[in-house]
Amino acid sequence: MLHVSWWKTTLIWFAVLASVLLAVPNLLGERALSFLPAWLAHRKIELGLDLRGGSHLLLKIERDDVEKDRLETIVGDIATRLRTMNIAYSGLAGTGRKIELRINDPAQVQPAVNALKPLTSGSDKPAVALSQGDNGAMTLNITDADINNHVSSAVARALRIIRSRIAQLGVGEPLIRRQGADRILVQVPDLADPQRLKNLLSQPAKLSFRLIDQSMSVQDAMNGRPPAGSDVLFSEDDPPVGYLVQRQPLLSNVDFADALAAVNGQSNDGKISVKLTQEATSRFAQSTASNLGKIVVVVFDDQVISAATLKTVIATGEIDIPGDFTAQGARDLAVMLKSGPLPATMTPVEERTIQPGLGGEMTRYSVLACIAAAIFVAVLMIGFYRILGIVATIALVINIIMVVAIMGLFGITLTLPGVAAIVLTIGIGLDAVVLIYERVREEEKNTHLLVDVLRHGFNRAAATVADANLTVLIVAAILFYASSGAVRGFAATLIVGVFTTFFTSCFVTRSLITMWISRRKPRTLLVGVRSGIFDNANIRFMGIRRYTFTVSAALSVVTLLAFATVGMHLGVDFAGGSIIEVRAKQGVADLANIQSRLQDAIPGDVRVERLDDRLSALIRVHAQEGGENAEQSAVTLVREELNKDYDFSRVEVVGPAVSGEITTTASLAVLAALIAILVYIWLRFEWQFAVGAIIATLHDVILTLGLFVLTGMEFNMTGIAAILTIVGYSLNDTVVVYDRMRENLRRYPQMPLPILIDASINQTLSRTILTSATTLVALLALYIFGGEVIRAFTFVLLFGVAVGTFSSIYIAAPVLILFKLRPDKFQTGSQSNGPAAGDIQSGKPAV
To answer: How do beta strands 346-354 and 646-654 pair?
Structure first.
């Protein structure tokens, strides 16, 4: 009878039952959830925008706007301070961040310096740096610290205003947070009109009523210099009409207490009325009384939207804004006026939008792919291990349940790449189970006492499982830190999967087998097991190492040459630009028609590709010259050109600032992963093992890049995720082989290294083939059923798993011979330390 501590068993199954309880809400509808306690109902996994549909916007505050406002404020402050002190000056003007003036009386220079001290030295971070010239000349430069401080304040104000604007839209549960020094991330799920959201959030919405300056004509002001206190502004007409307007407004946003939109149901026109504050009502009544007969213009974000002559005194405190508005335009303007003006323009530097309908379709594909992957690997495991395969399948189901439960518990969002992480977790989980089963099989050959077989098998395999999974964890953690959005969801899901895999494979599986043995009392654990296909294998892997190493090196060199000459097809993540997926409203997508229409409308290269369903097309617009605004303009032109004939299913726009940052971050992530792996393998094994692992990893990375070059697939951030995942999985297999080599080096220190390596690989060959097969089968299910969007990502993973399996045998192992790994290093102290002589099974390895 096996003796298992009751409290360990209790803890294991308490964790399983708690996971089932936490996972249940994900299977229930909204009505059923209403009957559950709030703390449980809220543990449901949130779907990412790529599975749910919605809009992701990364907005950057325009630093130039902040600098312009700051320049005007400081110029006004300087003038006020000098006038207060009766100091005569001339030529006060500012450009960019530089302000120049001249003190007329040289005797007043020092009093002027003293008057400006609150600006130049009034705090730890003065607003301006003052330098003096000859004849009373002064130059003041606005400091970086002052601009940075006001940019930060502007972002904080913009964050509050954006929250207010989105709240008035009545959408679901948006995610709005600050990102970095000058950006705001906005994610709105289930949004059907992303263009409206973008317009609402990017416009400052500064509205003012101003008088026309009639002191000179507009043309004279444009040819010469406008009068002080006036600007030339233009209307939104085509062609635009110019107006010379006074800079000081009669009314502005701070005077509006409320704004209301009214819609004409028959004509679908709208109008806006604003309600003034009590103070503004009185002031505006006096202004209109003293300016009857003059022309007042309404200015919205430095553009004249209407002009009218004052005919009566307006004293009611309610004003209809003249202009032609659509119903939607009136409602949006009311939203912006209620929330107040943004401190500066917010430019979208990254946009990723997917229509809710397409997101729901992706969800169905994802669920189908996960079910298919689980079925495929379950059939494979049961076919090889029979009863133990059933146990592995139960552990697999528990593993998935625990992943779902933990993601819901910690609020981890499930994205489309995250589904791939769940499928990969299935493969990694079965990898661990196979590793344990194969170790148990070896132990059963030496003793028939099931107590010892089970204990030794699980205990000795646990360290190897931990080592193998820790490499995946390191890579996933680096990827999580370096990425964002859907790719970060992949990394987070994979991190959870690593922990649940170790728990289910090492504890749940053992508990299930213990219960089965206690009830059925079998004479052997190997009832019907058919995994010993390679038990008597004597393959001379190292006998052909020179050929395989040469071929691999040649392929790597060719790949690097192709990478340097041909290059890869970089996606918008790295190259910038736009990807737009459209679906024909009637009939099939006409690629030639789309190409010709867009080629004339958009500068630069535009490519159109047909998707599998023939109703849809994928439009790729290369990066535009002119920065983020040019990218947004290109997408707007595509919408205007195709909106009548096509629905927009998916839009991705990445500006040059974000694409440059993604490129740098991705490169550092790959480098950090390689360094972390080098250090870890070095600490756990020997430096020769670390070098071998890195060379094998570089081999896998280079050949995977070659796949992108050869096929012309788009290389984006999901490609980086695929490469890092391949690195983790390849090392998983390499560590298992290395662990067996280290074990044999302790037992057979005098055995020639090539023979010992062959023996170690042969001993782990059944595990290598089975785990690679289960992972490939799981990924194949995702490739077949996962849908078009994730197919390329899955294909790269399939290739990488195959290449990683090859490199762990034919690259990582021969390097140990090349660098003359010393068996005596493992012999020293091996009889007294660690899991050495006494714990190693007897008998020579198969050679």
So the answer is: antiparallel
Looking at the DSSP assignment, which residues form a beta bridge with residue 654? 350, 577
Percent residues over pLDDT 70 in the chain: 95
What's the token pair of residue 416? 């489309």
Pinpoint the alpha helices (H) of 34-121: 38-41, 49-52, 63-84, 109-115, 117-120
Say how many C-beta atoms besides its own lie within 10 A of residue 180's C-beta: 11
Contact status, residue 572 vs residue 660, Cβ threshold 8 Å: no
CA distances for 554 relative to 544, 561, 667, 693, angstroms: 16, 11, 24, 19
CA distance 776 to 15: 30
The answer to whether residue 265 scores a pLDDT higher than 80 is no
Give the burial class of 749: count Cβ atoms within 10 A of its Cβ; 0-12 exposed, 13-18 middle, 19 or more buried. Answer: middle
Q: Which SS3 state, helix, strand or coil, does residue 819 take? A: coil
Contacts of 162 (CB under 8 A, 6+ apart): 59, 176, 184, 186, 201, 342, 346
Residue 267, exposed/middle/buried by CB under 10 A (0-12, 13-18, 19+)? exposed
Confidence of residue 834 (pLDDT cuts 50, 70, 90): very low
Find the length of the chain. Answer: 847
- Residue type at 335 in one-letter notation: V
Q: Could you tell me the pTM of the whole model?
A: 0.80
CA distances from 438 to 252, 540, 719, 839 (A): 77, 21, 33, 16
Point out which residues pair with 554 in neighbouring strands: none
Q: Which of 13-22, 432-441, 517-526, 833-842 shows the highest mean pLDDT?
A: 13-22
Measure the CA–CA gap between 156 and 343, rounded to whole angstroms.
Answer: 10
For the stretch 642-691, pLDDT in tens is 988 998 888 888 888 888 888 888 888 888 888 888 888 888 777 888 88
Q: Kindly indicate the confidence band of residue 835, based on its pLDDT and cuts at 50, 70 and 90.
A: very low
Residue linked to tokens 């490129």: 663
Tens digit of each residue's pLDDT (9 = 90 or more) over 587-643: 888 899 998 888 878 877 888 988 877 888 999 988 888 778 888 888 888 988 898
- Cβ contacts of 791 within 8 Å, gap of 6 or more: 783
As a whole number of angstroms, the distance between CA 735 and CA 431 comes to 13
Verify cis geometry, omega within 30 degrees of 0, for the bond prior to 754.
no
